[in-house]
Amino acid sequence: MINRTSPIPLYFQLAEVLKQEIQSGALAVGSKLPTENELCEQYSVSRSVVRQALQSLSQENLIETERGRGAFVLERKVPIEMVQQLDPLQESMAKAGFKLTTRVLRQELISAPPYIADQIGESEAIFLERLRFADGIVFLVVRNYLPYSRTPDLLASEDLNEVSLYRHLAERYDIVATTGKRQVELAKLNDQRTASLLQVELGSYVLFNREVTYDQNKKVVEYYESWHHPDRTRLTIDLQRRY
């Protein structure tokens, strides 16, 4: 239940309550969640708290919101743990024989949405939106969120079209990305802007990544989300069993 004396934000507590109901089966796959008004009354919270909680669940792909119909529980994904190299995309693509080019679309300071602030540990973020091309053909939309306090002058950097972000952070700030936690899944694309940038139809299924990356001091480097063109991307994973 909601603990109003806890330092944990109300929206996060509500999201956890709903998540537990989904994971326990109390809210079954395909079932409709209570309306915003019903959740407000049931948990005695404001509509903004409910909306933030639903947004958090949507970002975890636990629910899907349909305009005019409400929010519905999505089928649970089977988690598969993998170990991968944290190589810059530019290097891995060069090894595969592709020329990677980047176009920075947005580079600005934002007030981070709650679910992003939770990931990076602060409320202000440097937001980068980038479109990436393989041999001149768009295949990837990336949105990066970096803690503003760590790299405030990154906003003035003019060479992010040309260099790897990780290399830039290492050379300019001595922030070396060493570890990360990545989730990869097939997701339905419901955002018109992303669909247009990726040149796919709204509602298409794409390969969706989300990742938190940490540096050599175990501090958060960034949180990012990316959407891969379904016909122009292949995921290859090197496997090694550990005994």
From TrEMBL:
InterPro entries from the UniProt entry: Bact_HTH_transcr_reg (IPR050679), Chorismate_lyase_/UTRA_dom_sf (IPR028978), Tscrpt_reg_HTH_GntR (IPR000524), UTRA (IPR011663), WH-like_DNA-bd_sf (IPR036388), WH_DNA-bd_sf (IPR036390)
Cited Pfam families: GntR, UTRA
HTH gntR-type domain span: 8-76
Chain segments annotated as coiled-coil in the UniProt record: none
GO molecular function list: DNA binding; DNA-binding transcription factor activity
Keywords: DNA-binding, Transcription, Transcription regulation
Domain of life: Bacteria
One GO-annotated biological process of the protein: negative regulation of DNA-templated transcription
Protein name per Swiss-Prot or TrEMBL: GntR family transcriptional regulator
Organism of provenance: Kaistia hirudinis
